[in-house]
Amino acid sequence: MNPTLIIQLVLMIGVFYFLIIMPKNKKIKLEKTFLANLKAGDKIVTVAGIHGKVAEIAETTIVMETMSGKLKIEKSSISAEMSVKLNEKK
Questions:
Q1: 62, CA 20 to 30 Å: which among 24, 42, 71, 76?
Q2: Whose CA is closest to 47, among 79, 71, 16?
Q3: What is the pLDDT along the chain (90 residues), one digit of tens a residue?
Q4: Which interval of the chain is the signal sequence (predicted)?
Q5: CATH topology for 3-89?
Q6: Cα distance between the two ends of the chain
Q7: pTM over 0.85, yes/no
Q8: CA 62, CA 39: separation in Å to the nearest integer?
Q9: Burial label, 7 (beta-carbon count in 10 A; 0-12, 13-18, 19+)
Q10: 64 near 73, Cβ under 8 Å?
């Protein structure tokens, strides 16, 4: 194989890694730490856009208090990005 072709392939793989894979892994890590640090009283936003406050926390679910009552939701349905923005406005 031509050495320039090998260098081009390595560069393409490097660019792919730094532009796509690395940011995705960073986002996943931030979401895991956000969910691990949730506590009762934190304001959250679900992926569907429902705003509320954490009332109770179980292993995989959360009871969220909204203006219309309480909802039991999965932890995976919480939008970490939007919830962090909501809590920064305090």
A1: 24
A2: 79
A3: 789 999 999 999 999 999 999 999 998 998 899 999 999 999 999 999 999 999 999 999 999 999 999 999 999 999 887 877 777 765
A4: none
A5: SH3 type barrels. (2.30.30)
A6: 59
A7: no
A8: 10
A9: exposed
A10: yes
Contact 26, 13 (CB under 8 A): no
**SS3 sequence, the chain?**
CCHHHHHHHHHHHHHHHHHHHHHHHHHHHHHHHHHHCCCCCCEEEECCCCEEEEEEECCCEEEEEECCEEEEEEHHHECHHHHHHHHHCC
Distance, CA of 82 to CA of 24 (rounded, Å): 17
- Amino acid 85 reads K
